[in-house]
């Protein structure tokens, strides 16, 4: 394994042993051995401390992924390795500070709230369209039943509804008049054209 150790820079026995050759995008040293690419820190651990126990993986206690010092490595479960990695991060992937007030378990509260907002908005829009389509279909299929129910309700509450309508008209007299004037002005040309067509049809 002279080829392996020629790519390691050892400055002190207890310090980090830096891997000087190829590293992955994540920062771990890589080396080709017998046609297979392996992690440098795992090769170092296996040479000096023995095989990694089955079901465990190596965690860098020094938090330096380029270090191959086997005494800076500890065999832990994948879950524990992830937990330690997240515990050392000061900011989340979107740059929010990982303070105790901003953590929900291991997750960033700000990111969680933003994700929930986007999720609710997306599904609210989809549910609204689904509900509108269902209501339209229901009204089409039950039009006679709904009309009969509306007439029945009106007949049984005619006095109260008429009284309520008069009260609303008295209370909002100016508002209704203003709306009527605005409607008259907006639809004046359309109304004149309709009256002209009707007149011409009657004359003919």
Largest sheet: 2 strands, antiparallel
How much β-strand is present in the residues? 5-15%
> What oligomerization state is this entry in?
single chain
Q: Which word captures the global form?
A: rod-shaped
What is the CATH architecture annotation of the domain at 2-88? Answer: Alpha-Beta Complex
Instruction: Give the termini distance in whole angstroms.
Output: 109 Å
Structure annotation, total helices = 8
- The arrangement of helices and strands along the chain is HEEEEHEEHEEHHHHH
Radius of gyration: 38 Å
Arrangement of strands in the largest sheet: 1-2
Low-confidence parts: none
Tell me how many strands there are. 8
CATH class of the domain at 2-88: Alpha Beta
What value does the average pLDDT take? 86
The helical percent reads 55-70%
CATH topology call of the domain at 2-88: Homing Intron 3 (I-Ppo) Encoded Endonuclease, Chain A
């Amino acid at each position: 394994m002279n080829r392996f150790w020629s790519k390691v820079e050892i400055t002190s026995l207890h310090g980090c042993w830096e891997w000087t050759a190829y590293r992955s995008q994540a920062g771990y040293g890589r080396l080709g051995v017998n046609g297979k690419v392996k992690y440098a820190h795992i090769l170092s651990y296996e040479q000096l401390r023995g095989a990694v126990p089955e079901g465990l993986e190596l965690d860098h206690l020094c938090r330096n992924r380029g270090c191959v010092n086997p005494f800076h490595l500890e065999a832990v479960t994948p879950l524990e390795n992830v937990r330690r990695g997240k515990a050392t991060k000061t900011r989340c992937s979107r740059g929010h500070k990982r303070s105790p007030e901003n953590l929900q378990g291991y997750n960033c509260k700000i990111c969680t709230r933003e994700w929930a907002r986007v999720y609710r908005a997306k599904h609210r829009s989809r549910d609204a369209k689904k509900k509108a389509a269902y209501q339209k279909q229901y009204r089409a299929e039950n039009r006679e039943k709904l009309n009969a129910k509306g007439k029945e309700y009106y007949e049984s509450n005619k006095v109260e509804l008429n009284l309520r309508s008069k009260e609303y008209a008295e209370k909002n007299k100016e508002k209704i008049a203003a709306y009527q004037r605005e409607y008259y002005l907006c639809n004046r040309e359309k109304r004149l054209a309709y009256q002209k067509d009707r007149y011409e049809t009657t004359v003919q």
